[in-house]
């Protein structure tokens, strides 16, 4: 509940419930948004994207604007998330990458040697005018609703570059990480710079918050994460400077890494569905807010099950300094859009006051 001496200014994205929850400030209700809310579960998205390749759509400011706005209109969520892809900075830098339906990003020339690392092109911010245009357009259209910008974290991007595409074991990535520590560090530094460049452009254009996705960090031991990955995630947050924009950091399968992820420099730690939020709050500590963590599969169940699980997540989230309600990963393609709208409405109803 909002204290009378600390009123919410709902007309300002910078003082929205999402931003306030990220900072651990009082809110008028728990803010809600959904990872992958813009996209594949929406029929209007599929109609708009028909005939346009994913990475082409991500570089069309008009398409980016419309696709980003679609779930805000439909679901009444408390934030928009920029429609983009974590490999887009690599594509803009000049790498040959294709997103194959049902597979994911596929790299034409994977990194297989130290020389390949040193040949990796850097992202030129002057090639991101389309991104600036899209973000500025969205900020105008959204008004008081905050826009979340995002980028892929260095480790997750490294896995795609080394594996050549999605992987279950990430064996090539780990082998390279262990066998070529100096080249690994150079690769991670380059990817950290790329991610920071991508985020800074979005922040400068008006994004009210940013999220760094480290989707595959959960494949690592805590020791390897702490020594070989965490410093480079921290580099991203340090490189985007002292801008007064909340930072969210999220990974999948990272329950054992939560205390470390909390030290990477973000204001909010995203939690997947495997760890209850009250336990996650204990692991992360009092200085960070939490985001999450309804299992996306719950949305495929009956309404009574959905309601029960939403209530559980809301209740457990009260243990955190601040709570942003979300899924524990992205919206599944077969999700009924009506279920998402219902969840947003229910969270607002349960937490209004």
SSE diagram, text form:
Layout: H1 17-22, H2 43-49, H3 54-57, H4 61-75, E1 80-81, H5 88-93, E2 97-100, E3 104-107, H6 114-118, H7 129-142, E4 147-152, H8 154-163, H9 171-179, H10 181-205, E5 209-214, H11 222-239, E6 247-251, H12 258-261, E7 268-270, H13 277-284, E8 289-294, H14 303-317, E9 323-327, H15 337-351
Parallel strand pairs: 1-4, 4-5, 5-6, 6-7, 7-8, 8-9
Antiparallel strand pairs: 2-3
Helix pairs in contact: 4-7, 7-10, 8-9, 8-10, 9-10, 10-11, 14-15
How would you characterize this protein structure?
This protein is α/β, with parallel strands linked by helices and 353 residues long. It has a single domain, classed as Alpha-Beta Barrel (TIM Barrel), CATH 3.20.20.210. It has helices at 17-22, 43-49, 54-57, 61-75, 88-93, 114-118, 129-142, 154-163, 171-179, 181-205, 222-239, 258-261, 277-284, 303-317, 337-351, and strands at residues 80-81, 97-100, 104-107, 147-152, 209-214, 247-251, 268-270, 289-294, 323-327. Strands 1-4-5-6-7-8-9 form a seven-stranded parallel sheet. Helix 7 packs across helix 10 (181-205). Mean pLDDT is 95; it is low at 1-9.
What can be said about this structure in brief?
This protein has 353 residues and is an alpha/beta fold.
Number of domains: 1
Order of helices and strands: HHHHEHEEHHEHHHEHEHEHEHEH
What is the averaged pLDDT score? 95
Report the uncertain regions: 1-9
CATH architecture classification name? Alpha-Beta Barrel
Rounded to the nearest angstrom, the radius of gyration is 19 Å
For the secondary structure, the number of strands is: 9
Q: Which of globular, elongated, flat, extended, rod-shaped describes the shape?
A: globular
- Could you please say which CATH topology applies here? TIM Barrel
The strand line-up of the biggest sheet is 1-4-5-6-7-8-9
How far is the first residue's CA from the last residue's CA? 5 Å
Percent of residues in helices comes to 40-55%
Q: Helical segment tally?
A: 15
Strand content: 5-15%
């Amino acid at each position: 509940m909002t204290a009378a001496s600390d009123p919410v200014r709902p007309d300002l994205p910078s003082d929205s419930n999402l931003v306030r929850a990220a900072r651990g400030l009082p809110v008028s209700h728990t803010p809600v948004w959904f990872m992958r809310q813009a996209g594949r579960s929406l029929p209007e998205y599929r109609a708009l994207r028909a005939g346009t390749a994913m990475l082409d759509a991500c570089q069309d400011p008009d398409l980016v604007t419309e696709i980003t706005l679609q779930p805000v209109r439909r679901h009444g969520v408390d934030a928009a998330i920029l429609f983009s892809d974590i490999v887009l900075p690599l594509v803009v830098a000049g790498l040959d990458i294709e997103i194959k339906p049902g597979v994911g990003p596929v790299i034409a020339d994977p990194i297989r040697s130290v020389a390949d690392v040193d040949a990796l092109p850097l992202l030129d911010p002057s090639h991101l005018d389309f991104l600036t245009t899209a973000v500025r357009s969205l900020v105008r259209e959204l008004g008081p609703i905050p826009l979340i910008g995002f980028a892929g974290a260095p480790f997750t991007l490294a896995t795609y570059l080394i594996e050549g595409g999605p992987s279950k074991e990430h064996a090539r990535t780990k082998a390279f990480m262990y066998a070529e520590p100096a080249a690994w560090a150079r690769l991670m530094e380059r990817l950290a710079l790329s991610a920071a460049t991508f985020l800074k452009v979005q922040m400068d254009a008006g994004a009210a918050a940013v999220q760094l996705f480290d989707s595959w960090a959960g494949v690592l031991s805590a020791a390897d994460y702490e020594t070989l990955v965490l410093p480079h995630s921290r580099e991203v947050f340090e490189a985007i400077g002292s801008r007064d924009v909340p930072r969210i950091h999220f990974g999948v399968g990272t329950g054992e890494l939560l205390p470390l992820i909390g030290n990477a420099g973000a204001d909010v730690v995203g939690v997947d569905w495997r760890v209850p939020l009250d336990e996650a709050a204990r692991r992360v500590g009092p200085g960070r807010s939490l985001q999450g963590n309804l299992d996306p599969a719950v949305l495929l169940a009956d309404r009574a099950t959905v309601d029960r699980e939403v209530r559980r997540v809301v209740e457990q989230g009260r243990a955190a300094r601040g709570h942003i309600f979300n899924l524990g990963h992205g919206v599944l393609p077969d999700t009924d859009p009506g279920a998402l709208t219902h969840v947003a409405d229910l969270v607002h109803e349960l937490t209004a006051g």
